[in-house]
Structure formats: C-alpha cells, structure tokens
What does this fold into?
Amino acid sequence: MSLFILLFIIVLLMISFGNFKFFGARFMNGSGITKIFAGYLIILLVGGSLSFMVPVEGTLEAEYLTDKELEENDRLNSDIYSTIESGKIEETEGLTKKESWDFPLNGQLLDINIMGQNAMIFVEKVDSLEGKVEVTHYSTYSYIDNIDITNRFKSPDVEMSDTTLKIFPPDPVNIKLVKFKNAFPFTQFTEDGEQFTGGYGMMQGLDFIYITVPADTEVNGDGYVIN
It folds into this structure.
C-alpha cells in the first residue's frame, strides 16, 4: 500500500472520529434513521480502508484476452483439424508449440502407445527424414475468465522403448483463481457497481501430438497417418 493511500486513510479516520466526538451528543439524541445512516457511513469508511490493506503482492500476473481474441480462437479451432491433416501444422494459426523430442528409430516399424493422454495424434511420413522419430506437442489456447493459462498446462512425457513410442499424460493442473476488485463502498454508486462480472468461462485447449517418421516406416497403434 502506498504512503499516499495510508496518509489519506489516517486523515479520514481523524476527521471521522473528530466529527463523531463533536456531534456525539446530537447523534445520541437523533432519530433512528440518523443513527442508522451514521453507522452505515462508519462501516463504509472502515470497509473501504480495510480493502486497501488486502495484499496483492506475490500474485501471478497473467495476460488477459479480449472477447474478440477468444472468438477468433474459437473460429480457428473449428478449422484446425483439416489444416493439420493437410500437413501444414507449422502454418496453422492459433497453435502454441509446447515441446519437442527426437528419438532414434531402428528398423522400419513404429508402434505408438498413448497411455491415457487426451490428445489427437497425427503422423506424417517424410522423405527427407532418416533413422529417427520427431515428436512435437502443440496446443490451442487455454483460458479462464479471459485469463490466458495456456502455459500452466505441461506437455506429456514421451518415451521410446525399442520400436514403441509411449506417450504418458502430464500431472493434473490445480489452478486457484482469486479476483481483486474495488471494494463495495467505492462501487455501489457507480454504473459498474457489480462486484463480480461474468467472463468468457473456462476452456482447456486442444492438445495435438505431431509425429514425423521416415517415409518407409510402418506405423501401428494409436495415431492417424495423414499421408
């Protein structure tokens, strides 16, 4: 809390207690409505002062997405499968490249085993690739109430054993969301006086595992070969 705000609160408290003492006798002899109104003003002053003392240091700053950006993301998601199936994943809009792996491939056989990971797996056979498997994890935006939380979701674990590629799901993500808004004493008389406004909801992004293999590789198991 800044020094200016602290001094402002102290001055308000001094004025309030001074007025309360000066008008104490009149207050005690006043009507019930006067007492209620005066008490309400004191509660507002105390509540407003305490609201400035709520600690906000140490909270995670996040990027806020506008409704227009989220609508555009929804539009891109509707076309994303056909774009990836065309083999142009590097040109696909709305995708975030999360992590990549390279593994040596012995022989011409690859078995893909997905161990509970909720992701779409695409396989592309590439003429220029020899003796190895390339794996890349992509995802679309994840957000909650317009807050971008894409980077909070980790990539899966990927392992290669002999000719079997295993994809394990990442650890669950626990997100605690706390909103800080202006206190009620300062918003009740404004047009934007609602304490909690609705956001764009929550959306966990789509996950894609894109695998490239040599052109002569036989692919079995989980995964869709696009060519």
User: Anything to note?
Assistant: The longest strand covers residues 96-104. The mean pLDDT is 75. The radius of gyration is 29 Å. The chain has two domains: 3-51, 67-225.
